[in-house]
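We include the pair:
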Amino acid sequence: MAPPLVIRLHPDDGVVIARVTLPVGTPVAEGVLTTARIPAGHKVAIRAHAEGEPIRKYGQIIGFATAPIAPGAHVHVQNCGMGDFSKDYAWGVDARPTDFIASPAAFMGIRRPDGRVATRNYIGIVTSVNCSAHVAALVADAFRRNPFTGQDALADFPNVDGVVALTHKTGCGMSTAEALSLLRRTLGGYARHANFASVIVIGLGCEMNQIGGLVSEQALTGLRTMNIQDMGGTRKTVAAGIAFVREALADANRVRRESVPASELMVGLQCGGSDGYSGISANPALGAASDLLVRHGGTVILSETPETYGAEQLFTRRAPSREVGEKLVGLMHWWEDYTARAGAEMNANPSPGNKAGGLTTILEKSLGAMAKAGSTNLVEVVNYAEPVTQKGFVFMDTPGYDPVSATGQVAGGANLVCFTTGRGSVFGCKPLPSIKLATNTAMFTRMEDDMDVNCGTILDGDETVQQCGQRIFETMLKVASGEATKSESLDAGAAEFAPWVLGATM
C-alpha cells in the first residue's frame, strides 16, 4: 500500500508535511483541501491560524502566523515568522539512567601505543599559518591517491590511508588572544589526533602563531616541525617534508587492526543542506543510532549551537545536573549577543537551500537538527575544539557552518562523522571517514556516488525510524573497521578543514 500523501508528526500540530508535491485540491485532512501547490517537504495548514498565533510542528512552536492562515494554505516564509515565547528549562526532569548493553558491539580499530583507538591511519601536515599552505599542499600532493586517474603514490603502503595537508586562511593578523588560543586549540587537537600516525607542522617563520608557542601551549610531543624561512625557502622545505613522509610511511604501514569495543567510537553528528524531511527521516534515524552507540558505551557529539537555538529547553530537561543545562543556555545568550554585535539575528540561519526544501524558521530547523542526538542524557557541554572526555551525549559549541563545526568536533577527539543531508552535501572530513545520510530516496538516487545511507526508506514506508537507526549503527561499525565511505572513494575531506575564526582580521 502506498504511504499517505502527508505526514503529521504530533496530534497538537496545525500543519502537515507534504510527502510529495501536492496540486491544488489535494485532501490533506478531514474536510481540508490544499488551496495552493505545496512542494514536497513543505508545510500545509490543516486548521485556521489567526495572525500572531503559534504554529506547531513536532508538537513544538516553530513560529507565529504573520498573517491569517486558512486551512489548506501553504505555510512558509510568506505567512510564518519568529516571535517571543517563554521557555521552561525544567532542569533535569527528563534525565534517566542509560540502559547500557550487557555485551557491547565491537569494530576493527587501530590501537595506538598510548591506548587510543583510531578509525583511520593518516600522516598529517599541519600548517601554523596560511603562508605555509602551498608548501604543505605540495608535500601532500607527492603522495596523492587520485580516484579519477587511478594514480596511487601509496600503492606500496596499503595500511596507510593517505597523507593530508590541513591548510587554513588564518594564523596571522589576529586581533585577540582569544582568537589565537582558539586556533591553537584546534591545531593541537588535530596534531595529537589518534587517526594520525605521524604529523609535520609547517610554518613560515614570522607569523603570529609561532610553532614554538603552539607546541608549548598545547603540550605537543613527537612532531616534526619546519619553518620555511629557516629551511631556506619553498623548494628546500618541500624536499625536507617529502623526505620525512617517506621515512614515516614504513612505520605507519606496520599498523594492524584489532577488535575493540564500540565504546571507543566518538561520533560527530552533522547536518547540512537540510530540507523539510531532515527532521522526519535522517535526523531521527541518526538519533536512534546515537542512542544505540551510547548504550554500547560510546560517545556522540552534537554541535552547531545556532541550529539548536530555540529548542535548547528540550536538552536542559535531559541534563543530569542544572550546571550542565546552564552551560547550554549560557551559550545561547553568547550567540544572541554575538549576532547582535554583527547586526544580524539568529533567525538568519536557515539558508536559501533550507528554505527551498521547506524549512521556514530557525526554530523549525533546530527542532529537526537536535533529533540527531537521540534521547539519552546530555552529560556535558564543552567549548569549541575542547577535548571531549565524557562518554555519552556531549554538546560542543560551534557555528552552524558545517566545515567549521566538524573541524571543532575532530579537534575534540571525534573519530567518525555522520552527516545528514536533504538537498545533497558532498562533505568529506579527513582524517575521519564521513558517512552521508540522505533524507529522501529521490536525492539518494540522484547523488548515489556521494550518499552512503538512504533514510528516505522511512518516508517510503519501507522502514521505521528504529530500523533505519539500527542500519546506521551497523554502518558506523563497518566504516570504523575500514570500509570506505563514498567521500573517501572520491578523496574528499582535506579542503573541509576550517578552524573557527574569531574577531577582526588586522
Remarks:
- Residues 202 and 397 are 28 Å apart (CA to CA).
- The chain has a mean pLDDT of 95.
- The chain has three domains: 6-81, 109-258, 264-386+399-489.
- The longest strand covers residues 196-203.
